[in-house]
Every structure is written in C-alpha cells, then in structure tokens.
Amino acid sequence: MSLTMKHEDANHWAYNEFKHLGISCGRTIKRFVRSMITLSRNIGESIAGASDNKAEAKAIYRLIDNEKLTEEVVLHAHRKATIQHIKERGEPVILAVQDTSMLNYTSHEKTKGLGDFGAGVHHKGLIVHSALAVTPDGIALGLLDQFVWTRALEERGKRATKRQRPIEEKESFKWLKSMDNSRTGMPTDVRLVHVGDREADIFEFFDHALACEQDFLVRVVQNRMTTEACKLFGQVKQELSAGHIVVEVPRDTRRNLSKREVTLELRHSRVEIETPVNMPKKWIKSVLSYQYGRHQSG
C-alpha cells in the first residue's frame, strides 16, 4: 500500500517508522503517523495538551479505540524498522538492553485495563518489559521486544513458593522470552548481547542463553557457589587487576550527590557455577565469565 502524505510528514521519523503498519486502511495509517508526530513534539503532555485543537485530540482518541490497531500491530511495524536501522548502521555488535518499568496510574480511576503492579493493593497501573536495541556507543535504534501486563491480586503472598515453581510459571520468565523475541530476524552478521540489571541474575537465563549460543551481560547480585568449592565473588577478587576505567556518575538528587568521576579497577575470571539445589535435573552447570569492578576513587 502506498501512502500520500504532506511533504513535511513524509520526511518525519514517524512516517518511516510506521508507513508499513500492518493494517489495510491507508487512512488509519495516515492518522497514526500524524498522531505520532503530534505526540512526539510534546513529550510528557496529555493527548489534549499535545493536540493543536479539540478536533485533533478527538481523532487521536478515536485512533486509540480502533480495534484493528493493536499493540502487536504497532510493535511489529516498529520492530521491522528497528531491524532495518541495525542493518543500515552496520555495527558488528548490538546490545539488547532489557528492563522492566512499573507505571502507576492509580489516579486514573476510570481507565480500563489497569491492575496490580506490585505497589499497594489499592494502587493500579501496568508493568512494561522492554528490550531496546542500542549500539555500543549508546545510540538507541528502537525496540526489539515489549510486552505489557498486570498481576493477579491472588498471586500476592506466593513469593515463598517461587523456588518450587518452574521458570515458565514465574514472572522472571520475561527475561528468557524477551531474549528469544529479540534475536528473531536478527542479521546473521550481528553479534547480539543481551544486557540486564540485577533482576536478570537468574540461572535459567544464563543456561538458556548458552543453549541458544547467545551472549549476555548481567549485573550480578547472587554470590553463587562455583565448582572450585568457593563462592563467586571471592574467586573473582583473587584475580590480578586487568586494568582501570574512569566512569562519569550522574548527579543523584535523592542522596544529594553531585556529578562525579570514579575510577574502577577491573578483574575478570572464567568460572563454572554449580546448578542450584532446587533446580530440576535437566539443567546443567553453566560456564560463565564474570567481571568484577571495584571503586577506587571519587
């Protein structure tokens, strides 16, 4: 389907990103592109505040109510554009940075589809897990994966049984699922590195990545037992220094800390970690490379 847009709209990023939106109505695609242009020019504003007039705001609200325009349709078009950006960049390495956001919409009492997101029982919102394609020098190229959900209230209080449940029944399965979705359709000459914070320090995540021949970088929180009969942190700290890097730490207003530079000493080691005792026998020991950074000065 070919679209005819105003010259300024046809040159906008939103047109190139969503011109192949997977619906058969050109008018709806045009409205979607124009809505993205309007909203992107006024980040943080409400739809009414971002729109030029009431007619435009009403058109955007009608677009949201369009049953054909699902989040799957929008993500598919955007992800296709993201893969194209990766090809055009020609980077040998792309980071797939995963993270989870909690959106608090408790004050939106009339909004449908909200639910428990981990705050108080009377709070309502959404949970969003995303995988963002980023170049090694920090240029964001677009989403590789994203899904939105809420928690069932009856799931509260079941944290004590999480060790007995398989990973597929846990919310943390999102890390494995997003890894698989992110690598789908990736150019074969691109090395994809899956990046996660401490929440991604999951044995099944490591094992799944190794089984799928995927690279990953995770901030470690668990001091796991190794096959050398010692704990992970102690073993890596015994290694000789591999060098130093200077890192700029942004200002932290919550702790009243100004922007500063710190020097990190790096040590790394290749270790084999033991399978957790509660893990089913199908899991194998994972051989991983760990890197340790120690703050030396500020």
UniProtKB/TrEMBL annotation:
InterPro entries: RNaseH-like_sf, TN5-like_N_sf, Tn5_transposase, Tn5p-like, Transposase_Tn5-like_N. Residues 11-68 form the Transposase Tn5-like N-terminal domain. Transmembrane segments: none annotated. Keywords: DNA-binding. The keyword DNA-binding applies. GO terms for molecular function: DNA binding. Coiled coil: none annotated. PANTHER family: TRANSPOSASE, TRANSPOSASE TN5 DIMERISATION DOMAIN-CONTAINING PROTEIN. This is Transposase DNA-binding. It comes from Paenibacillus algorifonticola. The lineage of its organism: Bacteria, Bacillati, Bacillota, Bacilli, Bacillales.
